[in-house]
């Protein structure tokens, strides 16, 4: 795991805070929530980025590619897991969420207060794009009011598009030949249309948010194609949100535990 990165996990009963997890340090810094507290407490995150999308679209693989610089076939995420990434002076937690139906409701908890949401689909499955709107968009209602959205089509290495440049992380290795490829089912225009629907759902003006063309990506977790570009673009946009939130201070709340009702006085009226 690269320097400046920590990893944690929250199961179905775990919290969505993303920064306080202790636990036994395992392989590559994995922290088990059920283990004894670790001496080196995990840093508190300044901001949160959440990946949402159906199962098998490659959310976990994208996160592994970026944070651990490798591709790994993974099992389905249960509940949620996160990495902590240092970006400049700030610590940003990146949450990987479960796409399985039985864990669907947890997405809203993990999105709470998120500065950015990465909605992920499989470029070879139009259904996976449609489900972002049908099943996952409502989960972002708990995100920050100024949350930014990225639409990411993964698995471009499986398409018949042979115009892809070499892997940006390993330039000596190009994307595999076109044999046994499938035709891409989701066009860039489809992702842009979804982005504009999100703006309408959030009642945001296009003039006040990043352009759709800048926030729609196509990636390959397997080859590394555009994965760094995706996360680094999102981080650069999250930093101003963190700065603004820190300047505003914690949310204004009322502590009702110390509330004491005023004593009633007897009426001074005569009978």
From TrEMBL:
Obligatory cofactor(s): Mg(2+)
Region (Disordered): 1-30
Major location (coarse): membrane
Stored CDD domains: Rab20
Enzyme Commission number(s) from the entry: 3.6.5.2
Record's bilayer topology term: Lipid-anchor
Catalytic activity: GTP + H2O = GDP + phosphate + H(+)
Gene Ontology MF terms: G protein activity; GTP binding; metal ion binding
Pfam families: Ras
UniProt-annotated location(s): Cytoplasmic vesicle membrane; Cytoplasmic vesicle, Phagosome membrane; Golgi apparatus
Database matches in InterPro entries: P-loop_NTPase, Rab20, Small_GTP-bd, Small_GTPase
Keywords, comma-separated and alphabetical: Cytoplasmic vesicle, Golgi apparatus, GTP-binding, Hydrolase, Lipoprotein, Magnesium, Membrane, Metal-binding, Nucleotide-binding, Prenylation, Protein transport, Transport
Keyword Membrane tagged: yes
PROSITE patterns noted in UniProt: RAB (PS51419)
The UniProt record lists the keyword Lipoprotein: yes
GO cellular component, one term: phagocytic vesicle membrane
UniProt-listed GO biological process terms: protein transport
Gene3D superfamilies: P-loop containing nucleotide triphosphate hydrolases
PANTHER family registered for this protein in UniProt: DRAB5-RELATED
Family: Belongs to the small GTPase superfamily. Rab family.
NCBIfam families registered for this protein in UniProt: small_GTP (TIGR00231)
Protein name listed in UniProt: Ras-related protein Rab-20
């Amino acid at each position: 795991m690269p320097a400046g990165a920590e990893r944690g996990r929250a199961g179905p009963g775990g919290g969505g805070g993303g920064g306080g997890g202790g636990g036994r340090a395992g392989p590559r810094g994995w922290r088990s929530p059920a283990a004894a507290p670790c001496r080196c407490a995990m840093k508190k995150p300044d901001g949160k980025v959440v990946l949402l999308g159906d199962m098998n679209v490659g959310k976990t693989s994208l996160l592994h590619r970026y944070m651990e610089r490798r591709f790994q076939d993974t099992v389905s995420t249960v509940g949620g897991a996160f990495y902590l990434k240092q970006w400049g002076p700030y610590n940003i937690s990146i949450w990987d969420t479960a796409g399985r139906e039985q864990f669907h409701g947890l997405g809203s908890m993990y999105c709470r207060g998120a500065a950015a949401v990465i909605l992920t689909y499989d470029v070879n499955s139009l259904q996976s794009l449609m489900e972002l709107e049908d099943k996952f968009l409502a989960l972002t209602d708990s995100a920050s009011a100024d949350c930014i959205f990225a639409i990411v089509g993964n698995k471009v290495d499986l398409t018949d598009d042979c115009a892809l440049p070499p892997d940006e992380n390993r330039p000596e290795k190009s994307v595999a030949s076109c044999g046994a490829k499938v035709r891409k089912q989701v066009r860039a225009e489809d992702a842009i249309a979804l982005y504009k629907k999100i703006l309408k759902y959030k009642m945001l003006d296009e003039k006040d948010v990043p352009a759709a063309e800048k926030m729609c990506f196509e990636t390959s977790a397997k080859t590394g194609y555009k994965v760094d570009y995706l996360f680094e673009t999102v981080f650069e946009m999250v930093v101003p949100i963190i700065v603004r939130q820190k300047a505003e201070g914690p949310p204004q709340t009322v502590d009702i535990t110390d509330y004491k009702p005023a004593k009633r006085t007897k009426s001074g009226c005569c009978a």
